[in-house]
């Protein structure tokens, strides 16, 4: 499940932390001081809260990239991932999966219609993030519903909360439904997963070599570039003009031959 996680990294206090080896295939190798790389088992590294947060940060970055790769968007207010509507046909977004023996199709984004009129859109969404519990790191999945008027921009405020309470009624949110929601998102986001019952980091590390955390000292990079202050001011002025369509005529002076 977490194969691609090991290509992610984070940096802290001039050190680079990654699960991925510092070799010719790692772009960070050129920015790491030669001979400074040390390796630690994950369990040996997770000795304090600071180190736990370093590992969690690496995994969360990988999760974000994994979700982007399959077209999921992230709602910054709820931190949940969701699919916007399609612009072909009815706009419904669906995905097939195999919960047990037979395949099933789950609608992830669909319009709520009354007498043929669309009043709003419902998005099956989920929070996905790493968490530390009982000295183990897990990938936690928290399904939920999001709502929008156009299938794109997620609702906020009282209206969204009202709809959320309606969809949290037992008819939509029984324990079995919640269980299948979690199983679906595990299979959908992490298709490599063989054991959807337990999303534990150590369960998915099959190669002992990848169970190591690499720590390298970061090289200081000198840069003599100095920003062109006049250019920055001109760009800011352009942005201000473009923000007001009534003043677009003022753009002409920027394109006149000197």
Assign an overall shape.
Answer: elongated
β-strand number:
10
Strand order of the largest sheet: 1-2-10-3
Distance between the termini: 59 Å
Oligomer: single chain
User: What series of H and E elements makes up the topology?
Assistant: EEEHHEEEEEEHHHEH
- Count of DSSP H/I helices: 6
Q: Determine Rg (CA atoms, Å).
A: 24 Å
Report on the biggest sheet.
4 strands, antiparallel
Q: What is the count of distinct domains?
A: 1
Helix fraction bin? 25-40%
Which strand-content bin applies to the residues? 25-35%
Low-confidence stretches: 1-7, 196-210
The mean pLDDT is: 76
Give the class from helix and strand content and strand pairing.
alpha+beta
Structural features, described:
- The protein has helices at 42-45, 49-69, 157-167, 170-173, 175-189, 229-242; strands spanning 9-12, 15-18, 38-41, 73-75, 80-82, 93-97, 104-114, 117-133, 136-148, 212-217.
- It is α+β, with helices and mostly antiparallel strands and 258 residues long.
- It has one domain.
- Strands 1-2-10-3 form a four-stranded antiparallel β-sheet. A four-stranded antiparallel β-sheet has the order 6-7-8-9.
- β1 and β2 form a beta hairpin.
- The radius of gyration is 24 Å and the shape is elongated.
- The termini are far apart.
- Residues 1-7 and 196-210 have low confidence and may be disordered.
A few lines on this structure:
The protein is α+β, with helices and mostly antiparallel strands and about 260 residues long. It is built from six helices and ten strands, in the order E-E-E-H-H-E-E-E-E-E-E-H-H-H-E-H.
């Amino acid at each position: 499940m977490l194969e691609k996680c090991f290509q992610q990294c984070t940096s802290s206090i001039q050190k680079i932390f990654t699960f991925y080896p510092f070799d010719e295939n790692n772009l960070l190798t050129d920015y790491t001081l030669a001979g400074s790389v040390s390796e630690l088992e994950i369990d040996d590294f997770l000795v304090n809260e600071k180190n736990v947060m370093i590992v969690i940060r690496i995994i969360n970055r990988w999760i974000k990239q994994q979700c982007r790769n399959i077209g999921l968007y992230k709602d910054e207010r709820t931190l949940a991932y969701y699919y916007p509507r399609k612009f072909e046909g009815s706009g419904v977004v669906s995905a097939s999966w195999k919960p047990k023996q037979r395949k099933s199709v789950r609608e992830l984004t669909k319009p709520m219609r009354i007498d043929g009129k669309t009043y709003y859109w419902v998005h099956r969404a989920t929070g996905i993030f790493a968490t530390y519990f009982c000295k183990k790191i897990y990938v936690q999945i928290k399904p939920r519903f999001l709502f929008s008027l156009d299938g794109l921009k997620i609702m906020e405020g009282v209206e969204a909360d009202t709809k959320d309470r309606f969809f949290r009624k037992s008819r939509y949110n029984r324990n079995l439904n919640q269980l299948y929601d979690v199983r679906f998102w595990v299979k959908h986001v992490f298709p490599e997963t063989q054991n959807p019952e337990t999303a534990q980091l150590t369960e998915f590390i099959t190669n002992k070599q990848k169970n190591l955390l690499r720590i390298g000292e970061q090289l200081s990079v000198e840069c003599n570039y100095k920003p062109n202050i006049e250019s920055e001011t001109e760009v800011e002025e352009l942005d201000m003009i473009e923000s007001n369509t009534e003043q677009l005529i003022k753009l002409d002076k920027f394109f006149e031959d000197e």
